[in-house]
Design brief:
The structure is a homodimer of 188-residue chains. The first copy, chain A, contains seven helices and two strands; from the N terminus they run H-H-H-E-E-H-H-H-H. The first copy, chain A, is mainly α and 188 residues long. In chain A, a hairpin with a 7-residue loop joins strand 1 and strand 2. The first copy, chain A, binds a DNA duplex (28 and 28 nucleotides) through helix 2 and helix 3.
Chain lengths: 188, 188
DNA sequence: ACCGTCATGTAATCGGTTACATGATTCT
DNA sequence: AGAATCATGTAACCGATTACATGACGGT
């Protein structure tokens, strides 16, 4: 069988790049190097607003990418044995290729609130809860845009602009649902 | 220890309801009964627009819900041994409870195109590809609203309206990116 | 020195995706 | 009736979530 040859454990060259991979590659590429914990903070401060990752992934994924030769792994000798990662030339090339493919993929909304609405949940309470959440998020984004927006590179700034647009859409949508559902029966 | 008693394999009462569970429960509840294949068609014709499921899930998930006692499973005696599912009273109760909790959960965009934008992809080609995709989706939704919209129950119609709103937002966003990126260098 | 909390990391589980497999149907 | 295509179903794999575990650190 073809898989039977003895590989002297060279970097396995063919990994699928998931969005998680891209985030890890992209952030390490921007910062030069990072430990998983630093990655966690970097995600929270950057793409985390529209694509967050559980911290456990930030230990598993770099390890996977290192096995594939896209990252270089350096283990600290001290007590914690922290691992520091850097992007290899192979990794840069892979990231570059991924960035160069303009995707026409459509992303589904996959919003649990919408699911509740679809299957007949009571619209008043649902819409009010959603409205609160989205108003808060919108305020947060607008504050972000006001404070750090001007200093952001074009990509991140556009992403933030997009987030604001969608939050405005959500606020408007749920507002209409609230209006059509009538006022909170707890009132008056 | 408390878990040590001998259960005579009764329906395991505590399943987490994932969105997948809810879609399966909800659709079977609306149609009365369904086989996995019918579920596949039902999803495509309903929630599939904003929350699709790979067909393999529509075999695995009903089985799981049946084990938990939320669905009743009936096996056809013929050659295919098709399985037909119905919602049990326990299942209806579980669905009802889920629908009654108004969630304030915020859903991330998680759009691969935005990810590319964020990490510095060439904006022109990306934005044009995205624009095409979203224009097509928007046209599809608007056509749906025109044709079947008036006959839809409130929940599904609102969900569709929401989808249209978000697609308009995407179209506007990527249009701006196209404009700011300048015209296609492939042009004269 | 102890306790609570946060930082950091690993392990186990589970849902979801991908790939494969077989039965039905249609067309020629 | 044979081939191609679609319907229907199962199995294996893998990424992601959850839960657990330990190390550091600040306060009292």
């Amino acid at each position: 069988m073809a898989t039977n040859q003895a590989d002297p454990a060279p970097p396995h060259p063919d990994v699928r790049l998931t969005p998680t991979s891209v985030i890890v590659l992209g952030l390490i590429s921007m910062t030069g190097q990072a430990t998983p914990y630093e990655l966690k903070q970097a995600v929270a401060a950057s793409v985390g607003n529209f694509w967050s990752l559980p911290h456990a992934q930030l230990y598993a994924e770099p390890a996977r990418l290192a096995r594939a030769g896209l990252l270089d792994e350096q283990v600290e000798s001290g007590g914690r044995r922290r691992k520091t990662y850097r992007v290899t030339p192979v990794g840069h090339a892979a990231l570059g290729r991924w960035l160069a493919e303009p995707t026409g993929t459509y992303t589904e909304l996959r919003d649990p609130g919408l699911l509740k609405l679809y299957f007949g949940a009571d619209r008043g309470p649902l819409a009010r809860a959603q409205l609160d959440a989205h108003r808060a998020k919108l305020a947060e984004y607008e504050e972000l845009m006001r404070s750090v927006g001007p200093t952001l590179p074009p990509g991140p700034r556009l992403a933030l602009r997009s987030g604001i647009g969608h939050e405005r859409e959500w606020v408007q949508f749920w507002s209409e649902v609230v209006r059509e559902a009538g006022p909170d029966p707890g009132d008056g």
